[in-house]
Amino acid sequence: MLLDTASLYFRAYFGVPESVRAPDGTPVNAVRGLLDFIARLVQDHGPDDLVACMDADWRPQWRVDLIPSYKAHRVLEEHPGDTEPDVEEVPDTLSPQVPVIEEVLDALGIARVGVAPYEADDVIGTLTGHAKGPVDIVTGDRDLFQLIDDARGVRVIYPVRGVGNATLMDEAALREKYGVDGPGYVDLALLRGDPSDGLPGVPGIGEKTAAKLIAAYGDLAGIMAAVDDPASGLSPSQRRKLDASRPYVAVAPTVVRVAGDVPLPAFDPALPAAPAQPERLLELSERWGLRSSLNRVLEVLRARA
Q: What Cα–Cα distance (Å) separates residue 216 from each residue in 56, 110, 169?
């Protein structure tokens, strides 16, 4: 099981009231919510391995170099040319909770993997490619639908209202909703665009039209070949829009497709049966008022042992 950790703690932050606080009054709604998510996921799906995948760089420069608008609207502070990533605009009361989340995961012994200059999606893509058996990817980000693969047992658990009410996305669900398979989702996403990621898409080509083009011509290469073929069935409007977007179409696949070659550090993905740092975990529990959420996680881990 691979967690798109930032996606989940953002959902926890907005799904759990900010009135959930530590003894000193500091909000810990994202911390508690994420721990409750993990307990429920392990209980419901019983993974052998669990990896919390992190955004070591949420806006990699190599993606920005290709499409400068990539996530630009979410930048709070730019560091162009620096080794430090840009600072993402996040709610004031969420930022201080992220280090707490990292400390708690480490004390529990849950593997936490982030590699610069890559996003969590890229870590997930690489781990999925290396996996010997089935993989459950837990994310609220549709970009990872591109990894769905029934033959390899790769599916996405997509939370709707918390992980207890999640949509299980496999190839049948993907085709029913979008009309494409996993690899086809990359082409769909880049043609459609995604305002939340600053991807412009091809103007005038929406999701339904993109799906029809993929069904007719197979993939992005087939679609662009059809642009050059006067005998193809493209409408004059579609041909004009796609032709005008060639510079974007040439670079967008590299931006939208998750990397599969992240140089991963050595780590143990096995689900822990007991905390790796019990004394530290107790300190964190008392400091941040996490006892009930941590108890739920620990009970589920013991039950899995």
A: 39, 45, 24
